Amino acid sequence: MELGQIEAFLAVVREGSFTGAASRLNLTQPSLSARIQQLEQSLGGELFFRDRRPVQLTLMGRTFVDYAERALGILDAGYTAVRAAQIGTVGKVTVCCPFSLATYLLPEVVNRFGQAHPQAELYVEAGHSDFAVNQLLDGVVNLAMAAAFPRYASQTQTLLRLHDEMVAAVSPEHELAKATAVPIAQLWQYQLIIIHWGAAFDAYLESLRQISVATGPTVRVPLPAALPMAQLPNSVTFLPRRLTAVSHLVELNVPDFQFDWDAIVITRRERQLTELEQSFVDIVAAVWQSTRPH
């Protein structure tokens, strides 16, 4: 298995055709096809359904694609580290975090870090918690933020724990926005915008719905789509309290709804932080403390 074969495979995945992938890599189509065939021989099966347009992955192809992307990501990180050492970069901090934290925490962290270390380089990538932890364990980044799930903490070294809570949130125009207290059963009468915050929260939400009689329509969407939908006057969604505050939504007082939603800042086990990385972690802690919702 060679690097060029993996690059050819991912190019076909991204372009959806062998012709487009060949053009992207500045190869002839026979050369690209040869690389894919050699990779398939190494793996022992076909990676694509070639008779479909656009070209589609087989089961083996779908299994392999995540590993191929991670392999190239690790090599790219290694190249970047070597180049930084060669040109004498002042320092670099690499971090990956969930979309939610990237939305309401990182803007101020990045601002303060840039002011404190104007010559340093900061590389930030966003994805779900699983992605962030994998990027950390693969060595693509040296710091990660993730939901405080035990399985993440058991694989890594926790540097900081950030406490938050899930809340029910609505638009300021929603008829419940000015209610002093809302019975849990009343939430299900509206359109629910459900974001996948993990199996534990899904189970908690489902248990609450099961004890209620009335149920309204449910829409399950990723976070970027959920935030504008939550602004609709007939919708109810569930967000971390801090994200609710910066999204210009109203937190409902639902006495029977209580769910802690902590995040952790982590690095790999037994790894010592650089001074620059420690400064980044300290800034995260300071921003979290200073931006506590009222």
CATH topology assignment of the largest domain: D-Maltodextrin-Binding Protein, domain 2
Helix and strand sequence: HHHEEHEHHEHEHEEHEHEHEHEEEH
CATH level-1 class of the largest domain? Alpha Beta
CATH superfamily of the largest domain: Periplasmic binding protein-like II
Count of beta strands: 13
- Largest sheet, strands/sense/barrel: 6 strands, mixed
Number of helices: 13
Overview of the structural elements:
- With 294 residues, this protein is of the alpha/beta class.
- The protein is built from 13 helices and 13 strands.
- It has helices at residues 3-15, 18-25, 29-43, 59-87, 99-104, 106-116, 129-137, 150-155, 184-187, 199-210, 223-229, 241-246, 275-290; strands spanning 48-49, 56-57, 92-97, 121-126, 143-147, 157-162, 165-170, 191-194, 218-220, 235-240, 250-251, 259-260, 263-267.
- Strands 7, 8, 9, 10, 11 and 12 form a six-stranded mixed β-sheet that branches.
- A hairpin with a 6-residue loop joins β1 and β2 (56-57).
- The protein starts with a helix and ends with a helix.
Features:
D-Maltodextrin-Binding Protein, domain 2; 294 residues; alpha/beta
Summarize the structure.
Helices cover 48% and strands 19% of the residues. The protein is an alpha/beta fold and 294 residues long. The protein has three domains: 61 residues, Winged helix-like DNA-binding domain superfamily/Winged helix DNA-binding domain (Arc Repressor Mutant, subunit A, Orthogonal Bundle), CATH 1.10.10; 104 residues, Periplasmic binding protein-like II (D-Maltodextrin-Binding Protein, domain 2); 95 residues, D-Maltodextrin-Binding Protein, domain 2 (3-Layer(aba) Sandwich), CATH 3.40.190.10.
